[in-house]
């Protein structure tokens, strides 16, 4: 069976691994790097990465609305501006990341039905048809397939996933890989391509050497895009394909290679990934340096300012580290605006907050 997409004819089955790896090696014009962090860290002040004013969530909602309205001209304008400016939200998140997050799932979010997902995919295919040379349209569709695959798998442990869930997870991830290969053939390139491919590598269980090569290529293409570091550290967690302490050692490596405030910030970001898992325990702090986390938190504030999410993550780590002073300072800024993804329940948040102010 064959399908037609963007004027190209291709088989509709899974893309073979060799084709995917070839796309990784060929994407962009920058040659792969064997070192982490080849770019100079951004400076504080006028030379720092520009910050986009406004709320990150509101921006995601706005770009999602553009998609529903089929305002493809505005979508192209937004993604081009985000890509070229390399701007960030308070807290350091790239606006480019926020753009794709906003257009890669149904507007109803967690309440989406299967028909909602199919309608959303249809909107993205409309975008591709209207703008066949758009990298953003294909990357948004690839990321949507990744998220749609997550829905099929569910959030439980592997032994809780049904046979049907595994099958749909694999099929939808294959669709994401196919869109990425198609996107690699376009003239227009985008840093987000590598991040979606990192997610595909995780689901497909690539060899460590292949995943490291993908990461090296990614930072050679866009060294300042810190989200690559989080994706790779996630791959190295013991619940995926790494051993105990492997993600933490990567945090040390990345921080040292990048250096400066940006290196400290990256250490903080990887630490939040390691410690802020749904199944995290106090033991997760054992292979991390609390002084380096605190330095990374300070660097975050100086470089990009703080977001509520990053404040909550820091407070969570301060509690695990047993640093009452640091936790109390963070909780004073958070107030009652606790983040569900970090604390999961209001009771856990309130218990931690009371501990911070106790003698």
Descriptors for this entry?
359 residues, 62% helix, mainly alpha, single chain, 17 helices
In short:
With 359 residues, this protein is mainly α. It has helices at residues 17-26, 56-68, 72-85, 95-103, 114-130, 135-153, 163-184, 192-204, 208-221, 227-235, 246-258, 260-275, 290-303, 308-321, 324-334, 340-343, 346-357, and strands at residues 2-5, 8-11.
Give a written overview of the molecule.
By secondary structure, the chain is mainly alpha-helical. The protein is 62% helix and 2% strand. The protein has 17 helices and two strands. Strand 1 and strand 2 (8-11) form a beta hairpin. Helix 8 runs antiparallel to helix 9 (208-221), helix 14 runs antiparallel to helix 15 and helix 15 crosses helix 17.
Topology:
Layout: E1 2-5, E2 8-11, H1 17-26, H2 56-68, H3 72-85, H4 95-103, H5 114-130, H6 135-153, H7 163-184, H8 192-204, H9 208-221, H10 227-235, H11 246-258, H12 260-275, H13 290-303, H14 308-321, H15 324-334, H16 340-343, H17 346-357
Antiparallel strand pairs: 1-2
Helix pairs in contact: 1-7, 2-4, 3-4, 5-6, 6-7, 6-8, 7-8, 8-9, 8-10, 9-10, 10-11, 10-12, 11-12, 12-13, 14-15, 15-17
Order of helix and strand elements from N to C terminus: EEHHHHHHHHHHHHHHHHH
**In percent terms, what proportion of residues is strand?**
under 5%
The computed structural class is: mainly alpha
- Write down the overall mean pLDDT: 88
What is the percent of helical residues? 55-70%
**Tally of extended strands?**
2
List unreliable stretches of 5+ residues: 1-11, 30-35, 37-47
Largest beta-sheet characterization: 2 strands, antiparallel
- Strands in their spatial order, largest beta sheet: 1-2
